[in-house]
Amino acid sequence: MENIQNTKKGVFSMYYPMMLNIEGKNVAFIGGGRVAYQKLKGLENTKANITIISPSIIPEIEEWMKRHRAKWIQKEFEPSDIEQAHIIFAATSHAEVNREVKLHKKEHQLLLLSDNPKESDFLTPAVVRRGKLALAISTNGASPALAKKIKRDLEQQFAENFGDYVQFLEEARKMVINKIDDAEKKKGILVRLLDPIFCELTINGNIEKRDQLFMKLFAELR
Ligand SMILES: C[C@@]1(CC(=O)O)C2=NC(=C\c3[nH]c(c(CCC(=O)O)c3CC(=O)O)Cc3[nH]c(c(CC(=O)O)c3CCC(=O)O)/C=C3\N/C(=C\2)[C@@H](CCC(=O)O)[C@]3(C)CC(=O)O)/[C@H]1CCC(=O)O
Ligand SMILES: NC(=O)c1ccc[n+]([C@@H]2O[C@H](COP(=O)([O-])OP(=O)(O)OC[C@H]3O[C@@H](n4cnc5c(N)ncnc54)[C@H](O)[C@@H]3O)[C@@H](O)[C@H]2O)c1
Description:
By secondary structure, the chain is an alpha/beta fold. The chain contains nine helices and seven strands; from the N terminus they run αβαβαββαβββααααα. It is an enzyme of class 1 (oxidoreductase).
């Protein structure tokens, strides 16, 4: 009940959403169980340097490592393991080990304690990805299960190939920006590209018709 009152008064700390480019950054996992696996999947295609420190890893992680680059060091946590890390996931089943990670991390390193959001520097939202579109859902830690449920709902709303539409918009935008100088005209075409017909034609695979329509619009409005 105390939390409900805090929320009403607006005194809880709000987390800040960001899209991080972590290519080449060192990400350390302490623990190689279910939670570590869930967070690892979220790092797919980020090109981060991932190291897992854990005496054992679950078979799912072993399988995952065949398709994605990550290094497993089979041992228990020691403070020297996180010296070079930019981001740390402490996901062991032992609260005291997680606490030790917190104790030894430096001020500038970002730590997630899987068993203690209040003591963490960040949390991980539920994410729906469709190509370059990312929809992140967070409850600020209030109800991870709700974040997951909303994710499932959104997965139904956004077709599997919705990323193709985002790709089309990116390419069309590049062309508009390269070929048109007038700011108002540019904006006009970019807004018209959001007409649902372009989305529908892309999702249904009518690419030729979509591109014809785009060229027609481009010729009319340029
Ligand atoms: C969304 C998602 C993303 C992801 O993991 O990638 C995510 N948790 C997911 C699922 C999930 N987690 C838990 C359940 C069981 C039901 C329940 O307990 O409610 C379920 C549901 C299930 O598994 O079905 C248990 C749980 N979670 C945390 C604690 C510790 C605590 O709160 O103290 C405990 C208790 C552990 C215990 O009892 O010991 C903490 C966190 N979990 C977060 C994220 C962060 C807040 C996100 C936000 O709300 O903004 C935060 C704060 C830190 C973090 O981990 O980042 C992912 C859905 C993934 C997907 O399917 O897409
Ligand atoms: N944040 C979340 O979304 C979430 C969800 C569920 C559970 N949890 C919490 O996360 C923690 C981990 O849960 P889990 O289901 O992944 O547990 P798990 O038992 O599947 O995995 C724990 C991992 O920690 C490793 N480990 C144990 N001691 C270690 C040490 N000294 N050094 C390095 N690694 C060590 C084990 O080898 C194992 O790989 C629990 O505290 C749980 O309460 C968090």
